[in-house]
Design a protein that fits this description.
The chain has 203 residues and is mainly α. Helices cover 52% and strands 0% of the residues. It is elongated and about 185 Å long.
Amino acid sequence: MVFAAIALLCCATAFPENSNAPTERTTPAVASSDPSTPTVNVDKSQPVRRDAPIAKNVSAITSNADDASSESSSSESITPGSQPFLNAPIKPAIHGTYETARQRKIWYGLVAASSGAAAFDAWTTRRAVSGNYGVESDPLLRPFAHSNAIYAATQVSPAVLDYVGHRMMTSHHEWMRKLWWAPQVAGTSFSFGAGVHNYRLVP
């Protein structure tokens, strides 16, 4: 009887009342000594779902982010090669002229005087040559001295001098603008002097 009571007491102390409740233990993964067997780490805190999306590659995400940032920085750093037309200084298409109304009138007067002096020279030359009182000393006009073509030939020189005088009158150089009348006056004087000389040859 005493022995049965002692056995019952020992069983009661060895198996408490809450021994029937299952205890949850986490067993760490143990590395296997066999190299062919893969090591599996089981994480019970976050259960794996079969329908969960697969995580993307981190390196791919990083490269895409770097490409996007490089494209944005390159687009911001690109500047136009030339400034807009509105910001550029506007240059006048036509330069201002130095010609005045008084100079224009004088130029037209010298044109008429030089052409008249050349015509007078041609008439006196034709008159002297046709009467055998002399010959044309200018080798360029000599082929035209025996015909009426000398009237047109003698107008070439005054036309050239009129053009030169007009260019000098509208030149940007001040010294040319002061002497623009010199070519026309010189040509007119030469033609008039030659005409007077030819006129005196004929008695």
